[in-house]
Structures are given as structure tokens and as C-alpha cells.
Design brief:
Layout (H helix, E strand, L loop, with lengths): L3 H8 L3 H9 L18 H15 L4 H11 L7 H33 L11 H7 L10
């Protein structure tokens, strides 16, 4: 059995986050010792590792909850899990496309300014003040 501190150290998840996951039902509320300490078993350690990895991949709490529910039903089709992962992939691809547009615009703005003039001559400041100087939408 692990204390919450040991779980935190082993998984790299902060104690308040572990408490939050317990509160929202991602991990089972644990019994407490006579000293009022939570004790976790290997199943909770495995679950926290699953949650951490899913969070690193950008899955929402709701998506993780659905994936955990699916993992507890081994006879159920994995198509739902695939759908959740495909949705996350689409979100990531959308974010990447947005970041590429931001990179392009920031490169253009940065290259448009020599950095040797005054604030009143600064193309970066002018571009931030006047959206029409941008080449397109990037929000």
C-alpha cells in the first residue's frame, strides 16, 4: 500500500492533483488508516499512470473518464476509444495548424522590423496596433 505522498513521488503527479482526481472520480476514494492517511494499492498506481499519460497526450478529464470506463469493460468494442483518440488527434492537428499560422505571422512581423528605430517607427508595435497589417487571420 502507498501513501498519497508515495503515489505522488512515484507518478510525478502532485498531491493536490491526486486529491482532485479522487474528487472527480477518476480514481477510487481510498480508505483511511487510523491516522487518517489515504492508502493506495497497485491498481490506483496503475490508474494514475494511465491518467498522467493521457493528460500528457492532451486528453480532457471527460475523455479520460470515458476511457477509464471503457477499460473496465474488456468485452466492449474499442471503437469508442478509437473515436475518442481520433477526436483528440483532430484537436491537436487544428492546434498545430493554428500554431503554424502564428509562427508565420510572427516571423513576418519580426523580420519587418530592423530593431534599430524608435518606438514610433517599430513595425512590431505597429502590427500589434493595426490588425490590417497582418497577412491573414491567425486567431
Amino acid at each position: 500500500m502507498f501513501s498519497i505522498g508515495a503515489m505522488s513521488k512515484t507518478t510525478g503527479i502532485k498531491i493536490p492533483t491526486i486529491r482532485y482526481y479522487e474528487q472527480v472520480g477518476l480514481i477510487t476514494a481510498q480508505h483511511r488508516t487510523e491516522g487518517n492517511q489515504r492508502r493506495f494499492g497497485p491498481e490506483e498506481l496503475e490508474r494514475l499512470t494511465f491518467i498522467k499519460h493521457a493528460r500528457e497526450l492532451g486528453f480532457s478529464i471527460e475523455a479520460i473518464s470515458a476511457l477509464i470506463e471503457l477499460s473496465e469493460k474488456p468485452d466492449q468494442s474499442c471503437s469508442i476509444a478509437t473515436g475518442i483518440a481520433a477526436s483528440q488527434l483532430k484537436d491537436v492537428q487544428t492546434k498545430i495548424a493554428r500554431l503554424i499560422k502564428l509562427e508565420s505571422e510572427l516571423t513576418r512581423i519580426t523580420n519587418g522590423c530592423s530593431g534599430k528605430g524608435t518606438g514610433s517607427q517599430c513595425y512590431v508595435l505597429a502590427s500589434l496596433s493595426d490588425h490590417s497589417l497582418c497577412t491573414g487571420e491567425h486567431n
